[in-house]
């Protein structure tokens, strides 16, 4: 783990030297804040968390206690940095599978909902191996691809956490998801959702960056990326490759080191800012 932490520190220095302050958000995606309890949010079907299921799947941010503190810190740091840079679209990915990116994205969404001051839309775009419905214990009536292709309105497919956090999930896997991720129709639907709900941020749970081209193809649609690494599994070379590829089309908002061996067993995440 020491090698991995050193790699993160070295990458931070290299990024500052070569990329400066980073890219700013597109003018067409300027920040906006949604009403606290508007009709469009209230129309979404609410999720009622099952405490036992949430605990089994390590979703701890639905309530405030010591287990959620690491995610609360992550939530605040990410929101602050995105606001400072005018960023709105956040990709959550990892170098390789089994790093905990979906669990992290779900905890981030629940943490924002619990805070209540911000609005967010979480969209599951890991379409080859979707797992968010299993993690949350909720299954929508329609698949997220039905929204991206215009067959089902977003308000009939998405579920709601709290008052102003929406979650759009996949119900089945896809063998060719890139066609959904790169189509003009999908991009138009994302822009429509963003315009209607005006969330403070949109979170995209994406496939691992080094496994296929799905996440790479979607990078131009993002403002920043949160990279999730796994201690004693993710290599420093993998982090370095991911950082370089992300920097070509977006910004690295931070690296989360998962499965760290902290003294406090509840603190399983470490956060490194680039």
Describe the model.
The chain is of the alpha/beta class. Helix content is 41%, strand content 15%. It is built from twelve helices and nine strands. The chain has helices spanning 2-19, 39-42, 51-56, 69-85, 101-115, 132-136, 144-148, 154-157, 178-181, 184-197, 214-218, 236-249; strands at residues 45-46, 89-93, 120-124, 159-161, 165-168, 201-205, 224-230, 252-258, 269-272. A nine-stranded mixed beta sheet has the order 1-4-5-3-6-2-7-8-9, sandwiched between helices. Strand 4 (159-161) and strand 5 form a beta hairpin. Helix 1 (2-19) runs parallel beside helix 12 and helix 4 (69-85) packs across helix 5 (101-115).
Which descriptors apply to this entry?
274 residues; 12 helices
Shape: globular
What is the radius of gyration computed over CA atoms, rounded to a whole number of angstroms? Answer: 17 Å
| Average of pLDDT | 86
How much of the residues is beta strand, in percent?
15-25%
- Note the total helix count: 12
The secondary-structure element order is: HHEHHEHEHHHEEHHEHEHEE
**Count of extended strands:** 9
